[in-house]
Amino acid sequence: MMNGVKKQADESILVCVYYGLNGERLIRRGHKLASLLNCPLYILTVDSKPLDNFDAEKSGYIERWTELANELGVEEFIIRDNEKRPIQKVIAEVAREYNISQIIVGQSAQSRWEEITKGSFLNVLLKEIPFADFHIVAVSRPTEDEGIDMYEKGVRAFIVSEGEQYKIVFTCPKSRFIEGIFFKEIGTDFDNGIFRFSYNNKMHELKIEEDFVLNPEKIPDEYKHYLV
């Protein structure tokens, strides 16, 4: 789906879509970023079923994403169907094949791509694709009329107690800490974003504004006692 416009070769963007209404919004966000950088844009969807076995709803999304890719001049809409390998292996393979430098993935309660933001899977993904910047796009549910916020590549970080508050730091502290992954909001000079960590096999999310935790009630009591 080449659009005939010469683009920069040093950057290329891959948008990963799986299912649902948010796919179109992710594609449009990727297109906006690709336009700003004047670079190629690719779309990837992965499914364990063969394309011929997609249900009517999934087939409808594929059709709409194909139309949108043509409309926006996307370089290629890549469909990896009947895929039995782990998602991160497929994404890594495509990223290498197409020389991808930035990858956009949606995080939604109704999307399988949400797995990418969870614990060890994220670590595996970052190790699989160390050559690309990974952006997690927080997407509102279809029933909500909210926008999308984009976050930078997740980095290792720590939460420590400071007085009666909790603060994020990026070097391993000598005091007690909670270890997790921090996603900084793009376009901010401060450490604003979200911090995710695993506890009792469950992912927890804290909102960070200018280094400090905005929702300390989300920290498990056991951790609060531990950090004191």
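That was protein one. Protein two is written in the same sequence-then-structure order:
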Amino acid sequence: MMKLLKYPFIILWRIWFYVLMFCTIIVLSPVFLVLTSSDRYYHQLFWVVRNIWANAILYGMGFIPDIKRDQQMEKGKSYVLIANHTSMTDIMLMLRASPNAFVFVGKQELAKIPIFGFFYKRACILVDRNNVKSRTAVYERAKKRLDNGLSICIFPEGGVPDEKIRLDEFKDGAFRLAIAYQIPIVPMTFADNKKRFSYTFLSGSPGVMRARVHPFIETRGLTTDDRAALKAQSRAVIYRQLRDYGKDGKPTENRKTW
């Protein structure tokens, strides 16, 4: 009975997420139009998206970011940012977790979302994972961004895995890129996003969203032959933290689904 009583509130809260996301984009759209008109404005765009849009979504939904950093990013230095991918809120939490401006490498399908997709394709690097030519083109577009002092963010699971999977296998893209340009990997673990706002509609709740920024993994001197080892090392760091979060008395989700 209690579950039935809470469902109307969850439905309204879920709807509020989409209302909040699209209303903030509409309000900020004049600013976004100007700042996405040229790459030279990207740092200003990132500031607005990180400090206004992401905060409005997270705090407007009752999510409180709690970010622990084992290492600080150097201002003006480029990195490849990676994290486990469990929720639409991963985008907002990643924005809060990185003080350095970065560009998302994301799936092309998101460009079809009304309003959001218009600015998404102007600001991000889009990839069709089923198209070899599209995947290859990512490297050229990423190089341009890296040359401008930006970082790159890729969710290496290649999509949001089944909710029963703690951490899916990683795709190669992030690690090929990091090795090709000899820049550090920044692994991050998002502990609570799946519990707070999963893709199961009648689920979730406001609360703390923990993120851990792990020590960076250097790629200087590595070659393509080291790609598999680098991928395995990066995944192990995130996996261990997810496992430890589940043991601390504050499980990130129903333990039976892990």
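The chain has one domain: 2-248. Keep this in mind for the problem set.
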